[in-house]
Write a structure and sequence with these properties.
alpha+beta; Rossmann fold; OB fold (Dihydrolipoamide Acetyltransferase, E2P); 2 domains; six-stranded mixed β-sheet; five-stranded antiparallel β-sheet; 8 helices; 20 strands; about 35% strand; nucleotide-binding; Mo/tungstate-bd_C_term_dom; translocase; ABC-type polyamine transporter activity; transport
Length: about 350
């Protein structure tokens, strides 16, 4: 399938600071893309370059085959939903949504009809006569979405539009936004620093750091097989263990000098092994583990129950290790007590030392 949006070698600098460094990305029609990364990584700058609020220093922005790199925002086939929604307080909800078509010269009756159809899509058709001040944060967010989609843009850009909502409403709006995107078939580019939000909604996640793209892929792919140390640490929680590969198909872990079969035949010579906390089992007489597990022995440093699961912090030969177990902790799991952990070698993901 041909690309709807093509970002070709885009760079953006502010004085001596490089905000975007050789960004290359292809986005297909109807795809939900999340730009994910910490503050200052370049994700909002990239969104603004796509939108036309900033021009790239080098590189091109191509939408549906047209180079729009130097076109102003209103001449690009896209729309943007901002963090603060930017609704007109003196206009009703219906007038807010109809504003875009009216600016394009559409007759009032037709503009109102389109606005009502957009409000129907976001479940607010009955509230068209209200004013923004009379609506909740979640309702205002839906009005902003209705206004953005009323002219059916080819591409919708969203700059952390859920960040002002409380946690429960935010989680509900994540699902509603994903369902709306699937119904419309419009490509969404969504900026967020919240990895769970990106995992919930996006078809593909673009992980950014220091102005560069570290990895692009589906959420499960990025979680299970991070390409770099930064991705492994930023996406979820991870134990990172230095390793060296031997010639006989094994790897030697720095932690307790443990030896494990290499999880793949093309293992790098050395680097970091990524082991997710949920892949570590607590072994005891009631749960001795099974054959094929690699075993680690250490001391519990902390045990934290978060209701649905327990976070187990252990010291394994001077290395801090994190394990996650379902349910409540056992009565005997107290800081300072010995602990045995086990993991299957197939759960190790290896990152070469230069990644």
């Amino acid at each position: 399938m041909s690309s709807l949006l093509s970002i070709d070698a885009v760079c953006k600098r502010f004085g001596g600071y490089t905000a975007l460094d050789d960004i290359r990305l292809e986005i297909r029609q109807g795809e939900f893309i999340a730009l994910l990364g910490p503050s200052g990584c370049g994700k909002t700058t990239l969104l603004r370059v796509i939108a036309g609020f900033m021009a790239p220093d080098t590189g091109r922005i191509v939408i549906d085959g047209q180079d729009v790199s130097h076109l102003p925002p209103h001449r690009r086939p896209l729309n943007t939903v901002f963090q603060n929604y930017a609704l007109f307080p003196h206009m009703s909800v219906l007038e807010n949504v109809a504003y875009g078509p009216r600016r394009q010269g559409v007759a009032r009756a037709e503009a109102n009809s389109r606005a009502l159809a957009s409000l129907e899509l976001v479940g607010l058709a009955a509230l068209g006569n209200r004013y923004p001040r009379e609506m909740s944060g979640g309702q205002q967010q839906r009005v902003a979405l209705a206004r953005a989609i009323v002219n059916r843009p080819k591409l919708l850009l969203l700059d952390e539009p859920l960040s002002a909502l409380d946690m429960k409403l935010r989680k509900r709006m994540q699902l509603e936004l994903k369902h709306l995107q699937e119904k419309l078939g419009i490509a969404f580019v969504f900026v967020t620093h919240d990895q769970e939000e990106a995992m919930t909604m996006a078809d593909r996640i673009v992980v950014m750091n220091a102005g560069r793209i570290e990895q692009i892929g589906a959420g499960t792919e990025i979680y299970r097989a991070p390409a770099t140390r930064f991705v492994a640490e930023f996406i979820g929680e991870a134990n990172l263990i230095a390793f060296e590969a031997s010639r006989d198909g094994e790897i030697r872990l720095a932690m307790q000098d443990s030896v494990a079969p290499a999880p793949r035949p093309d293992a790098p010579a050395r680097g970091l092994a990524v082991l997710r906390p949920e892949h570590l089992q607590v072994l005891d007489d009631a749960n001795p583990g099974c054959d094929g597990l690699c075993r680690l022995t250490g001391v519990l440093s902390d045990v934290i129950s978060v209701g649905s699961h327990t976070m187990i912090h252990a010291d394994i030969g001077g290395h801090a290790v994190l394990a996650r177990a379902m349910g409540l902790p056992n009565a005997g799991m107290l800081p300072g007590s010995p602990v045995r952990l086990g993991f299957h070698p197939s759960h190790l993901h290896l990152i070469g030392e230069h990644a």
